[in-house]
Amino acid sequence: MLTPQKTLDTYYLEARRDLLEVAAMLDRYDQAVKRDSEKAEDESKRFSLLQAMQILSKPDHPQADRAEKLLKHFAKIS
Amino acid sequence: MQIIQPHYHAIARTAQDYERMAMSGVVAVCEPAFWAGFDRRHPETFIDYFAQIAEFEPTRAAEFGIRHFCWVAVNPKEAENRELTQEVLRQMPEFLQKPTCLGVGETGLHKSTPNEIESLQAHVEMAMKHDQLVLIHTPHLSDKAHGTKTVLEVLAGMDVNPDKIWIDHVEEQTIESVLDAGYWAGMTLYPVTKCSPRRSVDILEKYPRERLLVNSSADWGPSDPFTLQESIVEFRRRGHSLQDAVEVYHNNPCRFLGQNPKWDIKPITISEE
């Protein structure tokens, strides 16, 4: 099992990369909206991602169950 | 599709990579001199390394029908050793004459120290004096924005031809300043620590493409030569034409590198899709 510090040191860069990919995906959507002068007909996936980040941004998750919470959250999107 | 891999550290990769790259359409790779993972202590070690990439590696690539070109420099991480840097610089002109050597690189900055800056200036001066192309490395991760700004400030204080300078490893926060200053900008696609294939296509869609290069810079660390092909697939998946892909992934390298007459691969036009 990894120590708290080792956990951060081991996975920080991969998590940074993954967050950048999410940021780039949201930018990509905004650029498409700008290009086409209209939003997606159904924006529920975008809102779902933004809500997921709100869940992640809560500082305390005593049960360490963020992944489970996100899976339940994403299950609302078909 | 014919592809140029403009930044690739072949000595750190296997023959199998060459074979797979050849099967995927790569027709040429360019190998800048770089850090070996440890600080070399002797100028002679660099000289042997330059001979390896200028003389031996082209023969290994040729086994798979791939052209191999190189660049020579002391990389920024080893520029702290001023004595070594000066001695290697003294011997570099001999290698600039080699038939597959395209210029001076990769020089640049790592931690943007005074010694690194002095080395960068000396490399750029040598390149301009010998009418060579220059490939400039910019720092990683949290040092990138500051290091890129410093590179641009150093170049702004020198008599350089921006057409002949490629500033590499740009990302979203640095590309605009590099292009605005008139230089070529390279995106390096790494699995974790640099740009990604998808983000590279976002950048290709956002900025004028005439001075953009895409590369994998695959080396001995966590890297992958096929991030370049991932970028191409992503570019095509978004509906860009084959000719547009050829312009970015083959013709742009030809246009930049072709400023050196040793580079004899010409831009191509697809007659029909």
Descriptive report:
The complex is a heterodimer of chains A (78) and B (273). Chain A folds into two domains: 1-39; 40-78. Chain A has three helices and no strands. Chain A has helices at 4-36, 44-57, 66-74. In chain A, helix 2 runs antiparallel to helix 3. The longest helix of chain A is centred in the N-terminal third of the chain and has 33 residues, at 4-36. The radius of gyration of chain A is 16 Å and the shape is flat. The model of chain A has no long low-confidence stretch (mean pLDDT 96). Chain B has one domain: Metal-dependent hydrolases (TIM Barrel, Alpha-Beta Barrel). The longest helix of chain B is centred in the N-terminal third of the chain and has 20 residues, at 43-62. In chain B, strands 1-2-3-4-5-6-7-8 form an eight-stranded parallel beta sheet, with helices on both faces. Chain B has 273 residues and is of the alpha/beta class. In chain B, strand 7 (184-188), helix 7 (197-206) and strand 8 (212-215) form a beta-alpha-beta unit. Chain B has helices spanning 15-23, 43-62, 82-96, 114-129, 144-156, 175-180, 197-206, 227-237, 242-257; strands at 3-5, 26-31, 67-72, 101-108, 133-137, 165-167, 184-188, 212-215. Chains A and B meet through helix 1 of A and helix 7 of B.
